[in-house]
Amino acid sequence: ALWLYLSGDNFKLSLLIQALAFSASAFLASTVVAAVHGFRAGLLLFALLLVFAEPYLPTTLSETNGIVFGTLSLVGFLFGLYRRSLFSYCFGAFLLAVGLAIRPSALFVLPCVVVAGSMIFGTSRIKRLIVVAVLTSAIVLPSGISIVLNRTMSHGDGGFNANISYTIYGLVTGGKGWEQYERDNPRTLEGLPEAKRSHVILEASRQHFRAHPLDLVQGLIKSQLLGPLQTFSQITRLAFLGAAGDPLRIIPPVAI
Questions:
Q1: 3-state secondary structure of 182
Q2: 79 partner at 20 to 30 Å CA-CA among 42, 140, 212, 216?
Q3: Helix (H, G, I), strand (E, B), or coil: what is residue 176?
Q4: Rounded to the nearest 10 degrees, what angle do helices 214-241 and 39-53 cross at?
Q5: Tens digits of per-residue pLDDT, 96-124?
């Protein structure tokens, strides 16, 4: 929505702005990593970021924006660690929480950020509590902003991270993907608002887990195996197409 607003509702221009935002964040993060760990490390980071973002750059999916804010959070964390700056570290935590609010993923990382920050910057018990409170506020703030925006700028029938219920159902049914609920229960969600859909899918996930708990284990194993394989496939594809990638999809992945 932000890119459409900045582009004046011009779809092609909004995609260009989105790509420029990713380029700027990737360049900034790679530059910081290169300054800290050397040129090769910065170049490797840029290549990996391109691998993950390339499939989503020509789309309006939330993955691209999640990657942009997640990449910027790395800059904040690096500044915070190497300059011993609690403000930079908190800003990195805020940006990471924004990215995860846009595109929910490994949410368990956020508590780890709080624990790590308290151990790094908490030199005393009182200061440790202050660090925990500040980091928790920085992490919770994006969720609060998202809820407020949903209530004030939408029709009010949405829900915070409601679409993650599709992923949860696909995971507990054996890692069959986020589209599995529609395959198992076609047209059962028609006419329902987004929040109600999420509730129905989560309830179906609970029922399936109670009946087939081992399917969740299978889903977790499959996701851990397929993730690295998909990354390797993307690296191979980009190596074939060149460093610029293939944002226009001139050569389909099936042809490689």
A1: helix
A2: 140
A3: coil
A4: 110
A5: 998 888 887 777 888 999 999 999 998 88
CA dist 235 and 223 (Å) reads 18
122, two tokens: 């908490």
Length of the chain: 256
Burial label for 92, CB within 10 Å (0-12, 13-18, 19+), is: buried
Sign for the CA dihedral angle at 52, 69, 123, 140 comes to negative
Q: How far apart are CA 35 and CA 40, in angstroms?
A: 10
| Number of neighbours of residue 165 by Cβ within 10 angstroms | 22
Cα angle for residues 34, 45, 33 (degrees, 5° grid): 25
Give pLDDT, residue 230.
60
Q: How many CB atoms lie within 10 A of CB 161?
A: 15
Residue 239, token pair as written in the block: 């190596």
3-state helix, strand, coil in the chain (%, to 5): 75, 0, 25
Dist CA 83 CA 117 (whole Å): 14
Q: pTM for the whole thing?
A: 0.73
Tokens matching residue 186? 């076609």
CA 187 to chain centre: 28
